[in-house]
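Hi all, posting the design record for the shared folder.

TITLE: backbone redesign
STEP: 1 of 1
STRUCTURE INPUT:
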């Protein structure tokens, strides 16, 4: 369906064009990054995002390596090593363990469970298009 330009929310390219136009019309309200640009300069984009949100990064914070530490914390390597991404469970501060499926709809949880049972490396990535 995506190849035909259709997604759950209507025509894909109309949606993208709407976001792009809104970002051009209201650059103070919509910040638009391209994935490839973020990959090229993650720390630079993190600083732009902080500025956009009204939280400037001080020279001292930058010199102390804070931006680099945040980038490392948000890296794919770090995120995949978190307990929730290894066990599928979230442990709350009070010790209660909440299964990952509790954060998804019943349908999404079932699809995720089937993908995990099959041993998919990237569960349910190919099935997010709505059936028409």
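Okay, here is what came back for every position:
SEQUENCE:
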């Amino acid at each position: 369906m995506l190849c035909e330009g259709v997604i759950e929310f209507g025509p894909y390219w109309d949606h993208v064009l709407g976001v792009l136009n809104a970002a051009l019309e209201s650059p103070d309200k919509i910040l638009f990054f391209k994935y490839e640009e973020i990959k090229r300069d993650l720390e630079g984009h993190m600083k732009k995002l902080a500025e956009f949100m009204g939280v400037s990064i001080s020279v001292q914070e930058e010199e102390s390596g804070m931006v680099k530490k945040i980038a490392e914390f948000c890296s794919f390597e770090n995120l995949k090593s978190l307990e929730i991404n290894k066990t599928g469970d979230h442990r709350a501060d009070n010790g209660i363990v909440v299964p990952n499926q509790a954060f998804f709809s019943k349908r999404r949880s079932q699809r995720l469970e089937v993908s995990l049972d099959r041993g998919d490396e990237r569960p349910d990535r190919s099935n997010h298009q709505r059936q028409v």
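COMMENT: Residues 114 and 120 are 9 Å apart (CA to CA).
Let me know if anyone wants the other runs.
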